[in-house]
Hints:
With about 400 residues, this protein is of the alpha/beta class. The protein has helices at about 40-60, 70-85, 95-110, 205-215, 250-265, 270-290, 315-320, 320-340, 365-390, and strands at about 65-70, 90-95, 115-120, 135-140, 140-145, 150, 165, 185-190, 200-205, 295, 305-310, 355-360. It has two domains: about 35-265, Type I PLP-dependent aspartate aminotransferase-like (Major domain) (Aspartate Aminotransferase, domain 2, 3-Layer(aba) Sandwich), CATH 3.40.640; about 270-390, Aspartate Aminotransferase, domain 1. A hairpin with a 4-residue loop joins strand 5 and strand 6 (about 150).
Amino acid sequence: MEKPAIKTKCPNFSSGPCAKRPGWTVDVLKSALVGRSHRSKEGKARLNEVSERMKRVLGLPADYRIGVVAGSDTGAVELAMWTMLGPRPVDIFGWESFGKGWITDAVKYLKLPAVKEYKADYGKIPDLSKADPSHDVIFTMNGTTSGVRVPDLNWIRADREGITICDATSGIFAMEMDYSKLDVLTFSWQKVLGGEAAHGVIILSSRALKRMEENEPKVGWPLPKLFRLAAEGKLKPGELEYNTVNTPSMLCVEDAIDALKWAESIGGLKTLVARSTANLRALENWVEKSSWIAFLAETKAIRSNTSVCLKITAPWFITLAEEEKAKAAKKITAMLDKEGVAYDINSYGKAPAGIRIWSGATVETSDIEVLTRWLDWAYDAVSKEYSKEIAK
């Protein structure tokens, strides 16, 4: 197969940190409040701005609180679990590495007495209808390492007694969400916004806030200072939005503000969702015509439109041992890396051998289309190599 003549304009397809927004340069950080306290008047104003812009782009309900916390999305989820769980049994749904990690935390470290575990293998999703409305619920909106997303939130009842904690990091800003069904949402700027890593964001409904304040004196385990948002049992106005517990990087805050300004300039959430959906559609069009690749997600309804995970289905590949499959897949991705066409598109280490392509809103559909031609070229070369080996 002839090598494609046109390369991608942006080869960054990593699933985190993800591609910067189109047109980004380091110059967007020139106004960052560096060398200043985040507790200064100006520092608080910047933190408040990033919070208000996130609220505006997402269209959050007026009574939802939002703030920046330590430890990326992982820190935000842990914060929610360690400060809010305990009063009720917990249903946890895990179908990829991070979701299953929340099960481990609840059972092994928090040692919660009543945890129901609902698991599924990569490419599948558990039966979400089993969620008990009298229990607290934890789930990921989008399985970044499996390419499997929650198809809808109809399984969450409006009259639920428990709270829902949603790890939304590679879904929020790219997928429509009914916020009335979600009491806690967590994410990181490094995903759909293409922001910098290290910082997490937590969104709390009034129900979640009430649980945190009531639960704060009762938790049966040591609570790290970074998790103590409700000081003295009360989360006061501004203490989440701009009086952060940890010291945030004002460079990262400035970068997030830039990403949010870009989002607003192109039409807000609706356009962000449309861009991600268009990228998925371009990959679907390619897969439908391909004889060697397929989605890891078992059904179309649960396909992610951000972290698209693909499996190699060619007969010669299927006959390989698992270790050899991983080597063959990496040969394909290494060729594209060497050509400067696509970086970091190996499947997640614990997932089935294959390819993972970030297709969130900061990625251009034209680059996705170019990438598919290069994938066919690289596969063709590796396929011929292995076919010769098998023939021997």
